[in-house]
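Course exercise 7: structure representation. Students receive a sequence record and must write out the corresponding structure in token form. The form below is the worked example handed out in class, using inorganic diphosphatase (293 residues). Read each field label carefully; the graders check that inputs and outputs are placed in the correct fields and that the protein name is recorded exactly as given.

STUDENT ID: A-19
EXERCISE PROTEIN: inorganic diphosphatase
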Amino acid sequence: MAATRVIAGAGSATSCLLLKTPFSFKQRLSRNALRFNYEKVLPSKRLFACNALYRPEVQVKEDGQPETLDYRVFFVDNSGKKVSPWHDIPLYAADGLLNFIVEIPKESSAKMEVATDEPYTPIKQDTKKGKLRYYPYNINWNYGLLPQTWEDPSLANSDVEGALGDNDPVDVVEIGERQRKIGEVLKVKPLAALAMIDEGELDWKIVTISVDDPKASLVNGIDDVEKHFPGTLTAIRDWFRDYKIPDGKPANKFGLGNKAANEEYARKVIKETHESWSKLVLRKIPGVELSLA
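STUDENT ANSWER:
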């Protein structure tokens, strides 16, 4: 069965780095408005096109059965045209907020991710040696990506032991109380950043909270996280440090003194990776085996 959810945008204007011109949109549904029906999506291909235009209503459609190799979650606009959650949903929302795309709902273990090498970059379950991947235990927060970001594997970060980017969009940990749905688009505040080093690659984890969470008005930075979500930053770091150990792999490491950086530093990381993404889609940087459609 294929569930369709309509996600409404918030705010009044944003800008497109590719077009170099501002554009506006009107909010036509409330932020939490969802509509469910069922529809199958047939795979298709298109030539390179990445306009990075905001679609006020983005429908999330499933193709195939969950927990199978063929399962995909596609994003389509009002006309039914496929769009990329990585390239076509804007990073920035109104009032300094960010758009966050949920890949893995909290308290679940299937390792879902945007397929960066497939046309329209749908969400799928990751595989290893032809088998579906699962975390050894549930992740305790909503997890996903920031659209229009990219960790450049040719760029060495002098702040983090010269580590190179992991060739993926920037990861997000959303600490709110609600379990979200795969493909849901949330408006979030960036609160902190953790510099995870996974097998020598830099894999940022941006800690956020959705603006519709009951505690969102109380939490605007790293100090507020410690006050209203005590122990959460340490728990996030330890979870990502240790999750590969049950599979016989070493613990992941963290830069920046093994501590979370504040919200200002998080925004710096986001800005830099957004600039790297814009260079990628303008083909100023080679992106090996990445889909730019």
